[in-house]
Amino acid sequence: MKLVIQILLGLFSLLLFFSAIVQYNDPDPLHWMFLYGFSAFLCAFGIFKKVNKAYIFFSLGAVVLQLLIVVDGAYSWLQSGMENILTTPMGEEKPYIEQMREFLGTCIVGTSNLLLLYWQKWNT
């Protein structure tokens, strides 16, 4: 089980690092680069059990705040018929597409943080 969690944390770390890098062309890149990048570092250090729980809770707080910001867009996406968020172009007429993408990205960050929290509790 220990190896499985370490592999998952490694995969999350790589995914989140990549996600942070590609945010440079986003309208609010610093916000997303920080959210993804900070969680990527937490996962990387978490593999070796070198993460303070306070940092994980800080990141989870940022996740909850971001989810509250984009939850309306996710709800609008559900009401609109759940268009394909990968192929549907973003635009002013469909702002919920970008918000749903942000919602799912934030859920990925939240999942990585919850895995870290479990890993920290399991190892103490």
Q: What does the secondary structure layout of this molecule look like, with pairings?
A:
Elements: H1 2-21, H2 29-46, H3 53-79, H4 95-122
Helix pairs in contact: 1-2, 1-4, 2-3, 2-4, 3-4
Name its key features.
single chain; elongated; 75% helix; 4 helices; 124 residues; mainly alpha
Number of strands: 0
Question: Can you give the mean pLDDT?
Answer: 89
* Overall SS class: mainly alpha
Strand content: under 5%
Distance between the first and last residues' Cα: 15 Å
Q: Element order, helices and strands?
A: HHHH
What portion of residues is helical? Answer: over 70%
Short account of what is shown:
This protein is an all-alpha fold and 124 residues long. The chain is 75% helix and 0% strand.
